[in-house]
Write the structure tokens for this entry.
Amino acid sequence: MKINVVDNLPHVTATIKRGDNKALFKTVLLDTGSAGSVFSVDVLREAGIEPLPEALIRRMVGIGGEEFVVDVSVDNLIVGTLRAGSFTIEAGNLDYGFDFDGILGFDFLQQTGAVIDLAAMEIRRKL
């Protein structure tokens, strides 16, 4: 999958699936410095993907500030040819002053063995 640069930051697209519900995220920040992957609670809700009542709520702190997020278990998180199954994301408002609807973090990158090729500006599996 090609990496697009928006506001000097790397972005990709992602799809999240749970059951018959599917959410498409068009502007996802590729962030190797983020421990977890966080997605817009609004986009998830529009697709019918809601946190379970017993889901954990936690405080997330980073360069963009802090916010409260909730854990959401999903069947798949897909970025190009990379797929993480039975994956836990965090859902939040993502109100950091930038126009993106998700953050793809180190948890996904590590689990999928992602290769970030900046010369080719793509994210993919190891060849």
